[in-house]
Amino acid sequence: MAEPLLLLLMVGVFAALALGFKLPLGPSLALAALAGALLGGHGLALRHLVEGAFGFFDIILIIAAAMIFMKSIQASGLLDGLIAAVLRAFHRRPAALLWTMMALAMLPGMITGSSLAAVLSTGPLIAPVLIKLGLRPARAAAFVASGAVLGMIAPPVNILVMILGAGVDMPYVGLTAPLLLIVLPLALIIPLVLGLGRIRSVADGEVAGLLPAFDARPYGVRIYLPLGLVLVLLVLQNIPGTGFAAMGLPAVFLLGSLTAAFCGRKFSFLRTSREAISDAMPILAILAGVGMFIQIMTLTGGRGWAVLAFLSLPPALLYAGIAVGMPLFGGVSAFGSASVLGVPFLLALSGSNALITAAALSAIVAIGDFMPPAAMAARFSAQIAGEKSLSRVLRALAGPALLILAAGLAVLWLAPVLDKVL
Amino acid sequence: MSSAKTDKRGKRRASSPLFGLVIILALLATAGFFAARDFLSMRAEEPIRPSAGLTSIRPLSSYFPALAGTPGDTDVYVFKGREEGGRVLILGGTHPNEPAGYVSAVVLIENLRVDRGTIFIIPRANRSGFTHSDPQEASPQRYAIETPSGRRFFRLGSRVTNPVHQWPDPTIYVNPGGQALAGIEARNLNRAYPGRPRGNLTERVAFGVMELIRRERIGLGLDLHESAPEYPVINALVFNEAAADLAATAQMSLQDQGLDFRLEASPPNLRGLSHREWGEAAGIKAVLIETPNASHGRLKGRPSASLVVDGRDKFYVRAAGLGRLYVPFGPEGIPLRDRVARHLAGVAALLAGLADLEPENAVGISGLPDPDGIRAGGVGAFLRRPPGGRP
Predict the structure, then answer these.
(1) Interfacial B residues in 66-125 facing A (CB < 8 Å)
(2) How far is B185 from chain A (nearest CA, A)?
(3) SS3 state at B288
(4) pLDDT, tens digit, for every residue of A277-291?
């Protein structure tokens, strides 16, 4: 059977199971992968299904640990304390609040290069504040997701560029200016697009009514220790010679969670962890399913066919291919898209400055974190904001996604000019 | 055993959730068992049958004892001539998913005789990388090479160290050269030089190689690799400053044989690679040889053992037509025998160049298969049969 037909059948099986039979996305992806293996003449392909599922093993552990952290700081009262502090400081200045919140949303992504770490570390603080000031949960979720993705693109750490660079032996130096050129305008505009006019200024007398019921002030600074510890460990991880690099993000989040158990309101760590894993299970299953799907897609030649199809586009349509293909594949995995599609696109654009091109491609591929089926940043932001409908969050993200895409394409197109300026 | 129970009216009731869970767990356990068996089978090393010219085999840990007993310890094959001369190190299997580098090192070990000087060969430089496959690449675990006495199987491993042996990856990896890289590169041996004695396993292997270079007073180091056909550094000799004249001399000699090799200077700001750090840390000449391998490219069609050995891929033929590749790629593909022939021709040309440029450091060898012979007779013709005659 021809490769594109096999790929189409796999997508068809997935759509039938997920949309027709309303099966959860994770099992639907796994069964579609199994169907692909059988139709491709590879039998059950157990080795490939298991190996593919392990492709996202580290990310699965990070998500599980980060979810426990998030639930722990909610239970300890840390979040309530921070929300109250931010509301007291900014309740009368909406624009300043939006920009401050955006900086906070971006910070963990800038340090770790991971939008997921950003959503799950400072996201739980930002979303409730915005909702209390009048933003709908879907928009608050879109705000958190946008900030996390902008942080992922922003310097000093952009893993997507590192992946692109590894494919062409380009060192990770000289990226600060092109990345800031893309991110700074977006970081100023997107908060206003999402929030200005929708969040209200609150008078001093009214603010007490918005504060969380739990008062964290009696616990003093120690209640904030878990978040401080996580942020410090995230920074230390990237400093060579400190010995913290080997810790890994799961250990960082688990240490933060354990600290939370001793620094605030008392809670059952075991029950909180169980709830966290239960909440995270659907996305963990999606990631395992996505891993299986990619492995079988590669095994049956579908991946190679897809990459070649994009590279076969005439030069005039190459930018369209980049704009559509990279975010679409990013819906499976932004890091995977950077490696599989990004590197060939970077090579196809080898006439332009590689640093500027890689920076622009990283912005475009990062939008993949908004895209289904995984939609990592969007899905977890929705969870944090208490928004049940992912599609509502995705609609709210359309504007930021188009802005990021436009900025990426503009920098890509203007690369020859920017090469002389930067 | 039935999953359903029958009520008083004889109708079957739905299976209990517990029974369903047991069935799912049993299925998962069965899948896990067979997958684990496949996974563990990668730890069985294929035999290497050294030529009569072999002087000794010693572990890399004899140069850096901290590696002893770890999955990073690997065999060093030593071929010492009767006369004193130059001292050369050859690495295969730095990236175990680049089969021509590994097979070329094996062919060298199984055929080489050294009359003058000493050659040290490490065929499985990242031994841990041979014990697993890259997730989502769907690569075959093994490929077979036909020999006169039957098939010999070789493992196709991963570009990086097995995460079972080195885990977790950092978010960002800052290598010993100070270069910031994506976290997975912490397991890439060719980003870990000059190594760290108390670093991660991959860095310790790199440090062990550096210790060998220093203690054995190596003058020339060769690292055998492959790259995807869409990658610009291909069919190339990548050299450091100290090896510039040598690489140019070898390139001319290879051109005379009808073998086109590009010359690529090692970028000074690309740190952690053998062709940069061997020279920086130990002052030796360093050359990395690249040949084209469709089986680890992003444009490949269905991964298979045949793709590894025959090197034929219809998508790469189309990509060549679109001008997306850096090597010609026709329907005949680029088979393993051609790639091994290129590697061995490169090694021979570099050794000959060394003898021309520095006669006092010349290394005299014999038994090296002729590239035309490999192309005509296949790699298998130059792999030794076991003492009993069975493959």
Answers:
(1) none
(2) 9
(3) strand
(4) 988 888 788 888 888
